[in-house]
Amino acid sequence: EKVGQLLQQVKEKMDEVKKLEATQPSAIWINDLDIINTSLNEIDKKIKAMAEEELELIAENKKRNKKKTPKKRKQRAPARKKEGTTKAPVAKKEVSNSED
To answer: What ranges does the record list as Basic and acidic residues composition bias (predicted)?
Structure first.
């Protein structure tokens, strides 16, 4: 079985070699460049799609994280002292430790 598969692969490769030998080098270059160009276009599309998705996520996060600024509260005037209700200073009592 494997011998048959290997002989088939050899035949396919020989056909490819004959085909390549029959084509001109410039045609091979053009074919290769077309393949590269197609691959690059696919990659560019993927990158563009990823960038658009990222921008959408950023916009969603900005909306979600946007917070309202709290209103500034008016500052209250300091409390007024009532006249006539001031406390008299309390005198400290001296404690003597002497023995009388």
So the answer is: 80-100
